[in-house]
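pipeline: protein-struct stage 2 | run 1193 | Putative lyase
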Amino acid sequence: MVGRIYHIGLTVFDLDRSIAFYRDILGLKFQGEIFMEDEETDKMFRKENCKARVAYLNGSKALEAPPIELIQFVDSKIHKEQSDLFTTSISEVCFYTDDIDSVYKTLIENHVECLSEPQYFDFRADGFGESRAFYFRDPDGIILEMMQPL
């Protein structure tokens, strides 16, 4: 009944700042932006006079790789709370890389908050293989993960 993931939506405070982060620092390709308003938008978001700028970015053209959807609500107060890994919600969005050390260095050089250095994990006994990974935050404090399968 349910197919692949179509996109992963993140509510952001400043769409232009977030586009710059995901495009210029993480290297995702900007796919485009839409503006949502009118009755359908009000019903979907369950908010009267709702307006939203929505941008899509992706790091792959593969069908299995869903884009990141960045949503900035216009003229609406955003409740900004610090995300953490121990609250029921989407805890993080994980990105794939072939060179985790290079990505980590780029993030540090761009003053991106990294929660640790890349860590090694061995889950071969569980059938998942080996990888290196670390968590970091986007400009709104949303937790992201970078992973390099080995």
